[in-house]
């Protein structure tokens, strides 16, 4: 799980039913993703979840 800059969290699994993220299995490919922009699905939906403070 990663914490995004917006404060939301995101699970980055290899085999969720809706996305394939094969890079999570390879340490060198994972390292390339550090500090790269990752769009927040919660923010895209205008949602708020419990891990955000006031």
Written account of the structure:
- There is one protein chain.
- This protein has 54 residues and is of the alpha+beta class.
- The chain is 20% helix and 7% strand.
- The protein has two helices and two strands; from the N terminus they run E-E-H-H.
- The protein has helices spanning 27-33, 41-44; strands spanning 2-3, 9-10.
- Strand 1 (2-3) and strand 2 form a beta hairpin.
- The radius of gyration is 12 Å and the shape is globular.
- It starts with a strand and ends in a 10-residue tail after the last helix.
- This is Pressure-regulated protein.
Fraction of residues in β-strands: 5-15%
Approximate helicity band? 10-25%
N- to C-terminal distance:
22 Å
Radius of gyration: 12 Å
- Which sheet architecture does the biggest sheet show? 2 strands, antiparallel
Structural class: alpha+beta
N-to-C SSE series? EEHH
Which strand order do you get reading across the main beta sheet?
1-2
Give the number of DSSP strands: 2
Unreliable segments (pLDDT under 50, ≥5 consecutive)?
A: none
| Distinct helical segment count | 2
Number of domains: 1
Shape: globular
Q: What number is the mean pLDDT?
A: 76
Write a concise synopsis of the structure shown.
The chain has 54 residues and is α+β, with helices and mostly antiparallel strands.
Annotation keywords:
alpha+beta; 54 residues; 2 strands; 20% helix; two-stranded antiparallel ribbon
What layout of secondary structure does this protein have?
Layout: E1 2-3, E2 9-10, H1 27-33, H2 41-44
Antiparallel strand pairs: 1-2
Pfam family, one: DUF3565
InterPro entries: DUF3565
Protein name: Pressure-regulated protein
